Amino acid sequence: MATINEIQDQIIEDFGLFDEWDDKYAYIIDLGKKLPGIDPKYKVEENIIKGCQSLVWMVSTYKDGKVYFEGESDAIIVKGLVALLLKVLSGQPAEDVAKSDMYFIHKIGMEQHLSMTRSNGLASMVKQMKMHALAYQSKTV
Amino acid sequence: MMTTINTDLLTADGTLNIDRIREDFPILHQEVNGKPLVYFDNAATTQKPIQVVEALTAYYLNDNANIHRGIHTLAERATAAFEATRDTVKTFINAKEREEVIFTRGTTEGINLVASTWGLANLKAGDEIVVSAMEHHSNMVPWHMLAQRTNAIVKILPMNDAGELLTEAFDTIITSKTKILACVHVSNTLGSINPVKQLIAKAHAVGAVALIDGAQAVSHLDIDVQDLDADFYAFSAHKLYGPTGVGVLYGKRAILEAMPPYQGGGEMISEVSYESCTYNELPYKFEAGTPNIADVVALKAAIDYVNSIGKAPIRAYEHELLDYAVSKLKDIEGIRLIGTAKEKVSVQSFVFSDLHHQDLGIILDKEGIAIRTGHHCTQPLMGRLGVTGTSRTSFAFYNTKEEVDQFIAAIYKAIKLFR
Ligand SMILES: Cc1ncc(COP(=O)(O)O)c(C=O)c1O
Hints:
The complex is a heterodimer of chains A (141) and B (419).
Chain A: H1 4-15, H2 21-34, E1 48-49, E2 56-63, E3 66-73, H3 76-89, E4 92-93, H4 94-98, H5 104-107, H6 122-140
Helix pairs in contact in A: 1-3, 2-3, 3-6
Chain B: H1 18-23, E1 31-32, E2 35-36, E3 38-39, H2 50-63, H3 73-93, E4 101-104, H4 107-122, E5 128-132, H5 141-150, E6 153-157, H6 170-173, E7 178-184, H7 196-205, E8 209-213, H8 225-228, E9 232-236, E10 247-251, H9 253-258, E11 269-272, E12 277-279, H10 293-309, H11 311-329, E13 335-338, E14 347-352, H12 357-366, E15 369-370, E16 372-374, H13 379-385, E17 390-394, H14 401-418
Parallel strand pairs in B: 3-15, 5-6, 5-7, 7-8, 8-9
Antiparallel strand pairs in B: 1-2, 4-10, 9-10, 11-12, 13-14, 14-17, 16-17
Helix pairs in contact in B: 2-10, 3-10, 4-5, 11-14, 12-14
The structure holds pyridoxal-5'-phosphate.
């Protein structure tokens, strides 16, 4: 499997093909639409990353040193951004997730979504995912 | 203090000279994401005319001093400018006396002031506080906090699906147990204009006092606190083309005099010894510490500006924009207009069955259009309406029909992207 940074670089390359913001967003919207929802039984309070505008649910499992994420949102663009984060971080070694640097967000011009609408911005999603990874790591040490 | 009064903001036939007015708002003349900015988030805060910015600058460049203390010339000038705003506000809301105008940080602080002084002094367990179903959190949370401290009960005036308070429910909710009625004059989410005069009369009939949250009303409606017979009326300068950080709490003299002070400090005392102190007279009793002098001074320029156009022509024009926008919005497939009261200001909320408000907001921003999406600090109301949030457009007198067209075109573009 490709490393976190290899996947990030691939995403940056893919986004390089879009000249207009419309195309970029159309792609993210498409990712959002295609992302399978999480099992409704996980759509509970403790899995919510709450914000002012939309809801994000994030759950993870841990197997053979790797973290597997699933996520969803009630807004499509955010769901598309979640899909990108899953693509980069899901299935990666916990250690790598915990110390990852999500530079692709800036490189594809999505930095406005980092702090968007307070706590459910990309920044807090990334933080949340790293915390999951750290928790698994500390359990295994 | 110089403030320029404009005489050419209206055309010969008494309508707004929009091109001329827009010149006074430099911020509007910019591109956002390569598109001309369309600012339709006026209910959150209005833009400031150059006259307000100039008043602010002139104060700091020429007159700055602490007020009510020094005997030197600058202190006198600063004090005069500060107090001149009080006179302007008195006339603007038709208060009986200038001492009934208290400067605050904003609507929120005004309401908190009343809740924690009048409220704590007058409420006991079992007493009732009446608010409406469409309150902003600023006129909800302070009463919840007061209720928690006093074991009083918060009662809600219900509304219909259009966003109109149910007048037939007034008498069952406002009863002899009611000690204070706190109601929003104009809803920030729905635009509804509430029958506050009638509500105040109902409150008085049962011996309660009435506070009106005028945050969204002052920029659209003529406010006459004496005619309304309001006991308290709170608003913010920043929603009235004035600076942030300043608001007004109007209160009837007799009630204000009977109230304990809010904060302690300089300005609000008359004599202080090591053992005790006596409080200063109104309005200073409620203005502890050095106030936000510069912004208070600039508030006068904002009110002067609004007065030089006139609320009636402003209302007529804003209604034209609202009707135009609504006529275009209602044809969009899947839209649900939220807030369709007969009496309303130029605010329109809406939701789509298949398009999240945040998604729409992001795409509109890409098209240079600023609207508000979310719960608008009215979460209980969102629950009542059965939505998690709405998109809200709110118009001011510097907006245009061309901007509405740009807004509508952007919505169609967003829909195409998502459907
Ligand atoms: C109806 C209403 N009440 C109160 C407030 C609070 O005003 P401020 O934040 O200026 O204190 C607002 C502002 O959003 C409002 O719209």
